[in-house]
Amino acid sequence: MSATSLVAETVWKSVESTRSVTQHQLSILHFLYGKNFERATKIVDQRGVKRISADPSGRYIFQVVGESRTKEDYYCFAENYCACYSFFYDIVNRREQLCCKHQLAARLAASLEACVEVKVTDEQLAQLLSKL
């Protein structure tokens, strides 16, 4: 894990433990993630993150609204996957970013308990995941 990733992870753990974010933490996250973090905060402010949880397993995935003209939704796991183009192009292929704005929005919303909660069955979640 890179030094940047370690710093980011330390800040995230602190935010998650308190369920709040300080101005100092916001500054650090903005420094690490740049415009993607700005865009992520906008998505969270607009309540654009849904946490789709399955019962009885408790497994979940995030559905995050996009900012494009089409307002397409993207499914992601906050720490390691997003279905958006930027994830594959900027993160996986070019390794220019730590994560995309959808992952950041999902992680921030989950940390602050600001997700719109959606409950589904395990079968419904499995069907959703099979389409990714």
TrEMBL record:
<dbReference type="GO" id="GO:0000724">
    <property type="term" value="P:double-strand break repair via homologous recombination"/>
</dbReference>
<dbReference type="GO" id="GO:0097196">
    <property type="term" value="C:Shu complex"/>
</dbReference>
<dbReference type="GO" id="GO:0008270">
    <property type="term" value="F:zinc ion binding"/>
</dbReference>
<keyword id="KW-0479">Metal-binding</keyword>
<feature type="domain" description="SWIM-type">
    <location>
        <begin position="62"/>
        <end position="111"/>
    </location>
</feature>
<keyword id="KW-0862">Zinc</keyword>
<dbReference type="InterPro" id="IPR007527">
    <property type="entry name" value="Znf_SWIM"/>
</dbReference>
<protein>
    <recommendedName>
        <fullName>SWIM-type domain-containing protein</fullName>
    </recommendedName>
</protein>
<keyword id="KW-0863">Zinc-finger</keyword>
